[in-house]
Amino acid sequence: MIKFQDVSFRYRDTDAWVIDSLNLTIKENQKVAIIGKNGSGKSTIAKLISGLLLHELGHIYVENDQLTPENLLDIRKKIGMVFQNPENQFVGMTVKEDIAFGLENRGVKREVMLEKIVDILEQVSMLEYIDREPQHLSGGQKQRIAIASAMVLEPKILILDEATSMLDPVGRKEMMSLVETLHNRKPFTLLMITHELNEAILADRIIVIEKGKVVLDGTPRELFTHHNHALDELGFPAPYTIQLAKGLEKNGFSLEPFPLDQEELISALWKLHLKR
Amino acid sequence: MEITFKEVSYTYYPNTPYEKKALHNVSFHIPSGAFVVIVGATGSGKSTLLQHMNGLLQPSSGKVSIGDYQLPITSKKVSLKELRKRVGIAFQFPEHQLFDETVREDILFGPKNFGIPEKDMEHRLQEVIHLVGLDEELIERSPFELSGGQMRKVAIAGVLASKPDVLVLDEPTAGLDPISRVEMMELFSSLHRLENITTILVTHHMEDALKYADYMIVLSNGRIHSKGKPVDIFNNQDALKEVQLLLPESIDMFHKLNQTFDLNLSYRGQSPFDLAKEIISSLGEDSS
Questions:
Q1: Rounded to a whole number, what is the distance in Å from the CA of B55 to chain A's nearest CA?
Q2: Is any Cβ of chain A less than 8 angstroms from the Cβ of B256?
Q3: Cross-chain residue pair A235–B177, CB shorter than 8 Å
Q4: Per the CB < 8 Å rule, is B272 touching A244?
Q5: CA A254 to CA A129: how far, in whole Å?
Q6: Which residues are in coiled coils (chain B) (predicted)?
Q7: A87 touches chain B (CB under 8 A)
Q8: Nearest residue on chain A to B173, alpha-carbon basis
Q9: Is B256 in contact with A140 (Cβ distance < 8 A)?
Q10: B280: which chain A residues are within 8 Å (Cβ-Cβ)?
Q11: Would you call A195 and B276 a contact, using CB atoms and an 8 Å cutoff?
């Protein structure tokens, strides 16, 4: 659970608010996508939750504890983060050492540690790379290791801060399906900060941030459906498949339920095709 | 300026245990004024290829010519100043290369270095900040105080300020929001059309490749896998699977519709709304 209550933040007293009286509650195990233009404040939200930046006004709660400078380290233990640049997040010489780093910090016993490392590497399909140097992996593989390093500590919350933006399309797709699989296996609260609507569609809920405030909040189906143009107007044109579905409706086809991906569109068309 | 690669190979760290051949006999020709997109999975050799275009790397073997300029093979040292003045490169996340105290200094670093007369500088500055759509108020600020999107524009303005004949862009829109991405692609497209700048773009956005490129080169493991018009390459979907590339969402939809409903739709850049009409009439005919 994450709760923002009238939270404001700015970098300097003289600057404008980057986060402006923000109110937001994210339920336990919910998958939430946060989207917004460059400079909207969306990445700042992630940094405020983890206490990398400290809010000036209002209250932030993480799993029912109010975030304060005193309990910041305890709160951070509940959160895993994966950032944009896969190069900047390695500390170990090998994949194994890298994942062990966080476990050592938590005082996990050596025998248990190896077991946990093997288990998490299996889950991210990277076990065969256990003794490799992280630098020599591909971008997508590096991000898998970054996810493994975060998830081995069993955080309540995983934050992906534009974590796919430096990957190629295949790497992106694989990473999203990995996160989906991990979430299905053992749920956690997922916060993904992204520009890609194709990724945001995989969330239970999409939140649009503009000038440090929530300007739109709903399920993908609510936001993309039928006559809802709010996302378009905020500068997030729908993916091609959804534009096509909207085009079909405008031309007098009614599609129920409104399709969000290619598969759903094809099956909606099948039904219509068979009726004719 | 035209660019020709003839059987170009490049090996990193030759004769060491880390030796890695990154390009194998790569040959292609880019006519002057073309808009070319280079695609390929991570590690396919795209960045290595680009670095040959202004002499940051020199081929291990083969010939690279850019206009009248011949790039010598490795080891021979030559002056590259003239080449670098004519070929502007923006690498991935070019904002990481900003370094000067103000936006003005940063943008004018290139022209100063290339000996543009002082009196032309201000004009040049005004010209490029308008091109990229940067607010005039920002020019005396530190580039490091700007937002990510603004920093990207400063970096691109810096490349354009030297008035290159060839513009080489390595994923210039990565990490930008959708609107900024469209704006930046429209900028490159209009520069290409109006100033006749030869443009070489590396991108993972297949929709952009489809929309903007005259010509596309697909790289795979350091070799040219295919080259031609984007729409022709994308229509050969099985070949693209081999090289770990995904189709643009639009073309993929055409293929799926054609396969599933036995239709004969073809992609001509029509809008989703127009495609919807075509689908309805095709499915309608089918039942009558």
A1: 25
A2: yes
A3: yes
A4: yes
A5: 50
A6: none
A7: no
A8: A165
A9: no
A10: 248, 251-253
A11: no
Residues of chain A above pLDDT 90, percent: 66
Does B250 contact A at CB distance below 8 Å? Answer: yes
How much is the pLDDT for A53?
A: 93
Residue A190 vs residues A2, A40, A186, A214, A231: alpha-carbon distances, Å:
11, 20, 12, 18, 22
DSSP letter assigned to residue B248: P
Q: Where are the domains of chain A?
A: 2-237, 239-276
The Cα of B76 is separated from the nearest Cα of chain A by a number of Å equal to 30
The pLDDT tens digits along chain B (288 residues) read: 999 999 999 999 999 888 899 999 999 999 999 999 999 988 899 999 999 998 889 999 999 999 888 887 766 666 788 888 899 999 887 777 788 889 999 999 888 888 888 888 899 999 999 988 888 888 898 888 887 778 888 999 999 999 999 999 999 998 888 888 898 999 999 999 988 999 999 998 999 999 999 999 999 999 999 999 999 999 887 778 788 788 888 999 988 999 998 888 888 888 899 999 988 888 875 444
Q: Is B115 exposed, middle or buried (0-12, 13-18, 19+ CB in 10 A)?
A: exposed
Contact residues, chain B, for A36 at CB < 8 Å? 177
Q: What is the ipTM of this complex?
A: 0.79
Tokens of A264: 């759903």
Listed in sequence order, the residues at least 6 apart from B105 whose beta carbon sits closer than 8 Å to its beta carbon are none
- CA atoms in the 13 A half-sphere facing the CB of B121: 16
Question: Which three-class secondary structure state does DSSP give residue A7?
Answer: strand
The nearest CA of chain B is from the CA of A78 a distance in Å of 27
Q: How far apart are CA B288 and CA A45, in angstroms?
A: 56
Whole-number pLDDT of residue B288: 42
Give the domains, in start order, of chain B with CATH numbers. Answer: 3-247 (3.40.50.300), 248-288 (no CATH)
Measured distance CA(A249)–CA(A227) in Å, rounded: 9
- Domain A2-237, CATH among 3.40.50.300, 3.10.420.10, 1.10.1760.20, 3.40.50.2000: 3.40.50.300
The mean-pLDDT minimum among A15-29, A79-93, A158-172 falls in: A79-93
